[in-house]
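Troubleshooting log. The previous structure file for this entry was overwritten by mistake, so regenerating from the original sequence record. Sequence copied from the archived sheet and checked twice against the printout by T.R.
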Amino acid sequence: MIAKISLGAFLALLMVVVGVGSFLYLGTRQSKIVQPPELPTAAQPSPNAFRLPGTMVLEQGGALYSLSNGRFHQLTTPKGWTQPSFMPGGNLLVVKRSSVFSDVWTMSRLGHPIKQLTNNAAPRFSYDIGDNHWVFYPRISPDGRSIFLSYDSPKFGYEVDLSVWSMPVNGSLRSGRVWTDESAAPGYTGGDLQPVPVPGGVVFTRYDRNPDGSIFSQVWYSNRAGSFGHALTTPGADCREPSFAPAFNYLAMICTYGAQVSNLVIASYANGAVGRLQTVISNQMVAQPTWAPDGSGIAYLAPVVVAEPFQLWFVPATSFFQPKPSPSPSPSAGASPSPSPSPLPSPSPLVVKPIQITQYNDFDATSTLAWAA
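Regenerated output below.
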């Protein structure tokens, strides 16, 4: 009897020890990404890690961070700062978002607010929430004289579809011009977003409806205020978030082709027209593609695994721009014709391997990446 009791006690103790040991082992095998995301400044740069050129500004949790020489620096406190873009001279255009409105500010490269450019809060004694306004995605024009942005005017009731506007750098929206009026659109689509001024006009994302009511997006071009413009991509490609190479000769964007994916796609660009679409990344949920200021590649946000937080990635231009083959030498005069060579096999498709820059952050996939030399 005593032996049976001792054996039972031993087996119970063994189960406890094995159970605790298994739990501790499994704890060491858990992915760190399921833990709360780290602040970008928590990471220590590795001496051998790949380093992006120039300075990039990103948003996480309502705060802006700069990345330069492999190290992050926190520029602002987490108070709704988002969607940065660089201005000539190094200052930033940013959006400060509250619960019911948003405004555009200028900010120094070190994160100090300089000037509020819009005033979209409802009048002090207004009781109508519709008197507030939203503004997003400010960008400076190539000539440095105008700011393009998405603004929810004109609007009707609670419909907040956005239109593309421009305003003088030293002016206000009262002296601005509406480039795309969404009042005649089907409504409740999101409107026209993320304008990117280019020489001679503006490129933006337009959201519209299919006959069955589903929403799709296209990249559009307009060359003057009030012009309806024309589409650069088809409804079936479902493309958005345009970004240009420094010379404005190539366009990067994301395209879903009607599926629950977001491919990184590029195309040549000239004078309001694009060439053939080329898919660069097709196995990630890509967001906010942004060309390097030196044209050396494209940075973007994507999770390591679907439904996980968005990290920063980079794909070098050398991985998706195939070098042109050297021309064959011409035969010399009087030389006897040589037999026709056998046809060469087609080159294998390029395997694009993006470089993962961050691991445990949680960048906002709706916020642009500002990048300057």
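Residues 42 and 147 are 34 Å apart (CA to CA). Archived copy saved in two places this time.
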